């Protein structure tokens, strides 16, 4: 299992704590340091929808002008933006057996999917 995110994100910390409490072994991929490929983002967007993978609640997105936000209106444009601005990826994203299974942190969804 791989947890994708950034280490100083509170939601990522909550997810990691939950995984540890439930004795679930995982690898952490820090996409601020290791980056993320357009191919991987495309997998996630196909699994969850690009509008879910793009974190519109975060500061990175909010720093964009309204015009720039409106221009990101499809999966290809969202992926191009996210490759360049990894902080705008919704976190964490969890893959199990190389398949994207969860985005964000919700205890009920984690219990249902991972236990």
TrEMBL record:
<dbReference type="InterPro" id="IPR036249">
    <property type="entry name" value="Thioredoxin-like_sf"/>
</dbReference>
<dbReference type="Pfam" id="PF03960">
    <property type="entry name" value="ArsC"/>
</dbReference>
<comment type="similarity">
    <text>Belongs to the ArsC family.</text>
</comment>
<dbReference type="InterPro" id="IPR006504">
    <property type="entry name" value="Tscrpt_reg_Spx/MgsR"/>
</dbReference>
<dbReference type="InterPro" id="IPR006660">
    <property type="entry name" value="Arsenate_reductase-like"/>
</dbReference>
<protein>
    <submittedName>
        <fullName>Spx/MgsR family RNA polymerase-binding regulatory protein</fullName>
    </submittedName>
</protein>
